[in-house]
């Protein structure tokens, strides 16, 4: 059940048994001008997509596959840092169920006890100055079976194991609640309103990390994020700011 406030921000909630990818479907609706304030939850995705061209494996009963489409009037620069703020919204939703040890890994992974619990794929449409649309896809692991788990190419966490017994639909309602309030307020408040909350949950703060974009690699100490959500890397005293996109981060 959504709170009255966030219910007012949602136009349509689509519940699908099977879909190729909830992000792909909502992006198509965005193009037709019919995706604003629409959420789509699927029981299974046959072609789920992750960041940087990866697959996101999502068979029946293995977690949450959810996307929300939203339109903004201010151009894409007003959405700077949004993907990090979505991480904060997800962490808040998990906190409602007292899920322990939730952390954020820049730019937008949700970690739990040192492994990835959920990922966010944010896709934008539109231009720099005028209206733009965003589709926010959220994939969260819960109840992974061994045949799925063995296909995942990074350390993963599973909500059923960390905190058993949370009803999936209650969790989805909490995620939508947090997300809709965030999206509604974001153009006015921007990332700076969420920076402190993000910083408190920063998995790698003060730790040595490696950043990679294609064949380029940078090493240094993770020194938090700036007001736009860029990662600050301390490279022997020189502070360099990195903006999301295709960059990946890992511990050293
Ligand atoms: C990542 O960490 O690489 C992001 C994963 C995002 C997966 C979700 S599942 C719902 C939505 N539909 C997709 O095809 N991808 C996102």
UniProtKB/TrEMBL annotation:
Boundaries of every BPL/LPL catalytic domain copy: 8-187
Binding of biotin, residues: 21-23, 45, 49-51, 116
The keyword Kinase appears for this protein: no
Cleaved signal peptide residues: none
Keyword DNA-binding: yes
EC number: 6.3.4.15
Alphabetized GO MF terms: biotin--[biotin carboxyl-carrier protein] ligase activity
Catalytic activity: biotin + L-lysyl-[protein] + ATP = N(6)-biotinyl-L-lysyl-[protein] + AMP + diphosphate + H(+)
UniProt KW keywords: ATP-binding, Biotin, DNA-binding, Ligase, Nucleotide-binding, Repressor, Transcription, Transcription regulation
UniProt function note: Acts both as a biotin--[acetyl-CoA-carboxylase] ligase and a biotin-operon repressor. In the presence of ATP, BirA activates biotin to form the BirA-biotinyl-5'-adenylate (BirA-bio-5'-AMP or holoBirA) complex. HoloBirA can either transfer the biotinyl moiety to the biotin carboxyl carrier protein (BCCP) subunit of acetyl-CoA carboxylase, or bind to the biotin operator site and inhibit transcription of the operon.
Family listed: Belongs to the biotin--protein ligase family.
Full protein name: Bifunctional ligase/repressor BirA
Organism, as annotated: Microbulbifer epialgicus
Lineage: Bacteria, Pseudomonadati, Pseudomonadota, Gammaproteobacteria, Cellvibrionales
Gene responsible for this protein: birA
Full-protein residues shown: 81 to 332 of 333
